[in-house]
């Protein structure tokens, strides 16, 4: 079948993971969560006691990371050296440190290369989501989307994911603080040339999925 690469970028809590997975299902595409790769690398560094301020050590860890990540949108799996880290990489420990790892240029280069390999191995039939997919990882994607949402909506969504009764300050740090740190790495707040912005603040997941599907259909 024809190639179809869909690139989705956006801040935390924009809904990009749920939406990207559902779009992958509807089109029968593979799914790549690049944030999970940065999280897996962070977990691996913390597990091995790598000093996150040691740029060379973090870059080495990125190149050596024994990562096995599934690309089935219905069965997410993230294994590091055979250990299932799917739960732990979503926890506060990893979330608080992931931006520090993601600011390492050599580590990013190593992960971007892996992401491009995953896209090639899918036969270029994949939805890939993150912060720099439309600009760095797959600027040649058929459909390129920036999924945004205002702060209120992003905090509410992240709060629900955390179980509904989050510590307000911690939640604000996890969403707004992390986005501020991530913004120093890559620009995911403004759409690059040719990238379509979808604001999901007042849309349901299904409405957002439809909006993305419209962009994909127009691009195909
Ligand atoms: O998307 P998610 O919130 O799981 O991403 C976790 C972290 O990984 C982000 O906060 C960011 O620091 C980093 N990241 C990145 N580039 C990507 C995807 C994620 O720098 N393409």
What is the count of DSSP helices, taking H or I runs of 4+ residues?
Answer: 9
* Secondary-structure element order, N to C: EHEHHEEEHHEHEHHEH
* Bound small-molecule species: cytidine-5'-monophosphate
Low-confidence stretches: none
Q: What can be said about the biggest beta sheet?
A: 5 strands, parallel
Number of strands: 8
Overall form:
globular
Please, what is the average pLDDT? 93
- What is the CA–CA distance across the termini? 13 Å
Range of strand content? 15-25%
Helix-residue proportion: 40-55%
Rg of Cα set: 16 Å
- Reading side by side through the largest sheet, how are the strands ordered? 2-6-1-7-8
- Content-based structural category: alpha/beta
Commentary on this structure:
The protein is an alpha/beta fold and 220 residues long. It is 51% helix and 15% strand. The chain has 9 helices and 8 strands. The strands form 2 sheets. Strands 2-6-1-7-8 form a 5-stranded parallel beta sheet, with helices on both faces. The protein has a 3-stranded antiparallel beta sheet with strand order 3-4-5, with helices on one face. A hairpin with an 8-residue loop joins strand 3 and strand 4 (78-80). Cytidine-5'-monophosphate (C5P) binds at residues 12, 34-35, 38-39, 98-99, 102, 130-132, 178, 182, 185. Cytidine-5'-monophosphate binds at residues 12, 34-35, 38-39, 98-99, 102, 130-132, 178, 182, 185. It comes from Kocuria dechangensis. This is Cytidylate kinase.
